[in-house]
């Protein structure tokens, strides 16, 4: 299996990974950290997908997708931190004033897990950020040690996967997800 990571500009492929089975459902669509809370609460049902379709037509698109051949098998949300709620988040500190990018969601389709796709997504997100001029990229994964993580809450990633990709611990946070503390991991791209 050869995994290729590409910009998330094909809406149908993004929908296959983060969209609901029912078009009217109010699922995340990976918008909760991307847009202001008020807008996130106002967008309901199909409007959420329409918003994401618009993001897929922008430059840069809202993240990267991993493909096994033509099949989308993974998603990673990555964008300038200034364009996300992490710019204002009180639980996740700012290390400095660099205009860093944030990588906050990694999702691998069921049936494709445990095949290295999350590693490919992290690497692809790093290259995507670098290609768009990011001086550094941050992630806010779970510091779970060897503890099992509920798959529905594993979207933030786990610390050891980011360490394998060269990220270093930059700061502790007061954010907790699924009972695990989150840490701020950073990779300098300069």
Automatic annotation (TrEMBL):
Annotated signal peptide: none
Molecular functions (GO terms): acyltransferase activity, transferring groups other than amino-acyl groups
Record SUPFAM superfamilies: Acyl-CoA N-acyltransferases (Nat)
Pfam families linked: Acetyltransf_1
All residue ranges annotated as the N-acetyltransferase domain in the record: 3-190
The protein, known as: N-acetyltransferase
Source species: Streptomyces flaveus
